[in-house]
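Need residues for this backbone.
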């Protein structure tokens, strides 16, 4: 097993063992491409989403948040082109009947499952949308889809936002939520899932000024990867060639990350032109014009779309945080998570459990910290060394230990995750 594969396996196993991420429906043998988040995973994921919302919505005055329904009128997906073209090429092995994504095969002539050669026929286009019916009647008119991207829930609200808020151009709509794709081969832990979350922005611009806004968002993407604590030299821009771009895009940059599984797409930045608003105008018959204030100049705005995946951000954060080192000759595993993302910021414990006065004092410190930070854990299991190791594994930056000296001078030991250094600090300054 090479180092990267080993690292990936260690991360997956730590994520399960420590309550970050479990296989979906595990108890029934699992459901491929689905993942459940445990207490630490859900907090880490929320911290990522909240960071995104703060940077891109709350800190700006040109952004509007929305939260559209996941189920949408089927016309949305007809107009957007998803019903006809949201497909991946599928091949089936005539020997073992494995179904695989044709454009992801290492060798297009050899089945990676059974090893036979020349068993694939022609690739056929497989639509990745999950289809369902809305209401009690199961016919063509009741068809709906679980949304394969959050973007369309934004475009369909563009007019509502214009009417309610009368924003100046350029302005953006932001949404975070679930998306579903019936991926042919979900793989690589949460990297390619069938149910995942996106954080998307549709930024509406004057068509004559799209390049300026594209450049702005390109810089903002870097701001985001830095806020996640990802090293710059692990993030790469890939200018997508015309033949590889989605049909609606006039320019796309894929931001790739050096995951343990290799260099893969972390997020995308696309210039979607007026493709979506024109489709809505055509199919819904509603005018999508924006009139520049104080003038008669009107046009359908063009769109710059940064599209972020939550799971891929989380996987990038986990893989850059995962660290192995040696302390006093003993192997140690820890997550070097940025403090603002760590699911637990402080773990508080009494040095020993059988001294009531220590426990009581530690409880007071715990409650005060919990009130202030929320992300604080009480941990009095096992001896102190074991506690440190456990907290290291979940990425807790600080362990606060209440000991006998605390009872005398109201100072505690703070043990630092990255250096394992211990310092004494007055309780009031923690
Ligand atoms: P890929 O080429 O890897 O399938 P894509 O180009 O189809 O990705 P987009 O349609 O651009 O992806 O979606 C935007 C973002 O949503 C991606 O950059 C990624 O972060 C996330 N994403 C897309 N598909 C998945 C998936 N199956 N599982 C997890 N995240 C995904």
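Answer:
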């Amino acid at each position: 097993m090479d180092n990267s594969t080993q690292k990936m396996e260690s991360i997956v196993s730590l994520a399960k063992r420590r309550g970050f991420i479990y296989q979906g429906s595990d108890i029934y043998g699992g459901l491929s491409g689905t993942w459940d988040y445990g207490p630490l995973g859900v907090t880490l994921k929320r911290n990522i989403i909240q960071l995104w919302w703060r940077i891109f919505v709350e800190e700006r005055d040109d952004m509007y948040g929305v939260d559209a329904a996941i189920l949408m009128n089927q016309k949305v997906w007809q107009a957007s082109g998803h019903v006809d073209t949201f497909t991946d090429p599928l091949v089936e092995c005539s020997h073992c009947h494995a179904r695989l994504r044709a454009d992801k095969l290492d060798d297009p002539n050899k089945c990676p499952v059974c090893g036979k050669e020349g068993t694939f026929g022609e690739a056929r286009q497989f639509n990745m949308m999950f289809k369902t019916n809305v209401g009690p009647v199961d016919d063509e008119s009741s068809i709906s889809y679980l949304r394969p991207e959050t973007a369309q829930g934004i475009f369909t609200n563009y007019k509502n936002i214009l009417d309610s808020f009368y924003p100046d151009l350029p302005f953006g709509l932001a949404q975070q939520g679930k998306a579903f794709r019936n991926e042919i081969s979900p793989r690589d832990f949460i990297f390619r899932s069938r149910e995942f979350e996106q954080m998307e922005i549709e930024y509406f611009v004057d068509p004559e000024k799209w390049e300026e806004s594209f450049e702005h968002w390109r810089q903002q993407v870097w701001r985001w990867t830095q806020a996640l604590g990802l090293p710059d030299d692990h993030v790469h821009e890939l200018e997508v060639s015309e033949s590889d771009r989605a049909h609606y895009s006039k320019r796309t940059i894929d931001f790739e990350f050096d995951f343990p599984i290799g260099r893969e797409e972390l997020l995308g930045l696309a210039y979607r032109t007026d493709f979506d608003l024109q489709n809505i105008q055509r199919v819904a018959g509603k005018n999508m014009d924006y009139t520049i204030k104080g003038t008669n100049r009107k046009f359908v705005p063009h769109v710059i779309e940064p599209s972020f995946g939550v799971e891929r951000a989380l996987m990038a954060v986990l893989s850059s945080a995962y660290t192995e080192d040696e302390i006093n000759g003993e192997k140690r595993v820890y997550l070097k998570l940025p403090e603002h993302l760590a699911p637990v910021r402080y773990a508080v414990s009494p040095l020993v459990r059988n001294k009531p006065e220590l426990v009581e004092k530690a409880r007071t410190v715990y409650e005060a910290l919990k009130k202030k930070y929320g992300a604080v854990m009480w941990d009095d299991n096992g001896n102190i060394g074991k506690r440190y190791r456990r907290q290291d594994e979940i990425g807790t930056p600080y362990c606060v230990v209440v000991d006998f000296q605390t009872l005398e001078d109201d100072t505690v030991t703070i043990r630092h995750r990255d250096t394992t250094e211990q310092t004494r600090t007055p309780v009031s300054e923690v």
